[in-house]
Design goal:
Layout: H1 3-25, E1 32-34, E2 40-42, H2 43-59, E3 65-67, E4 80-88, H3 90-94, E5 101-108, E6 111-119, E7 124-128, E8 134-137, E9 149-151, E10 162-167, H4 173-179, E11 184-190, H5 194-200, E12 206-209, H6 215-227, E13 231-234, E14 253-256
Parallel strand pairs: 3-4, 10-11
Antiparallel strand pairs: 1-2, 4-5, 5-6, 6-7, 7-8, 8-9, 12-14, 13-14
């Protein structure tokens, strides 16, 4: 596979989708519908989904694509496929808090190996390069013209003074109880897949998620974290989190920097 071409395409489509999202975000008002799974969807979700899915199918017609808005198109028998969340953090988008992202990831044999996470309202762009190493690109983020790149590497955690990141919209008592078992020096709150990126950038050590997520929610962030030397494991047995599961639903998980002794459930 031509990973250089794939990464370039992912980056371009994420920027294109981000432009569509920000056009809606800048409107005085927009409609919010509720899907069958009780999650919100807006015009921005659908416009971003269309840009990305059409672009991916034109560029890589032989690779199956599944997006949050087009789940039925995914072939579970495929060893290689692309997972897309065109607008992760729709609740943050609706509340105009800025912590929403565009997410595109390549899955190879159950593992997210390449991915891009773009936060257009925060002007932060993270992705894996052709070799699978994670970089953050400085703005302005232009199609066809990459900015300065900074290679990312997870921090070396201080086991006596951890930095923990957790969700803005999905915090619950179980998560708080688990975090309370660690010696936490600082706590950061972020929305969407930005939590993975904060760990990848060395800005946090630990991100536990004890709530419901789907594979498209996590795949790109997982790839970004892995490319920076981080890990994502199941909460129950600390085995690697894998992709291509029936129904696309993830178990609870923990994203973390190596060198941290994880506590059992």
């Amino acid at each position: 596979m031509d990973h250089a071409r794939l990464v370039s395409t992912f980056r371009t489509l994420a920027l294109d989708a981000g432009r569509e999202i920000m056009e809606v975000y800048g409107q005085a008002g927009f409609d919010v519908d509720i899907k069958e799974d009780a999650t919100p969807v807006t015009e921005a979700d659908l416009r971003a989904d269309r840009v990305i899915s059409e672009g991916l199918r034109a560029a890589f017609p032989d690779i199956p694509v599944v997006t949050e808005e087009q789940q039925a198109s995914h072939d579970l028998a495929a060893d290689v496929f692309i997972l897309v969340d065109p607008l992760d953090g729709t609740k943050e988008f609706v509340k105009r808090r800025g912590d929403f992202t565009v997410n595109i990831a390549l899955i190879e044999h159950g593992v997210p190996t390449r991915g891009v996470v773009y936060a257009p309202a925060k002007a932060r762009l993270f992705y894996t390069d052709a070799e699978g190493r994670t970089v953050e690109e400085a703005g302005p983020h232009r199609v066809g013209q990459a900015g300065a790149l900074t290679a990312l590497k997870v921090s070396a955690p201080d086991p006596a003074a951890l930095v923990v990141v957790a969700s803005k919209s999905h915090r619950d008592q179980a998560t708080d109880d688990y975090i309370a078992r660690y010696p936490v020096a600082d706590f950061r709150s972020a929305g969407s897949s930005l939590k993975f990126c904060l760990v990848a950038a060395g800005e946090a050590d630990l991100y536990p998620r004890l709530g419901r997520t789907m594979e498209w929610d996590t795949a790109a962030g997982h790839a970004v974290l892995a490319g920076a030397g981080g890990r994502v494991v199941r909460f129950d047995d600390h085995a690697p989190l894998t992709y291509g599961k029936a129904g696309f639903e993830n178990p609870h998980f923990i994203a973390h920097a190596p060198g941290l002794t994880l506590l059992k459930a």
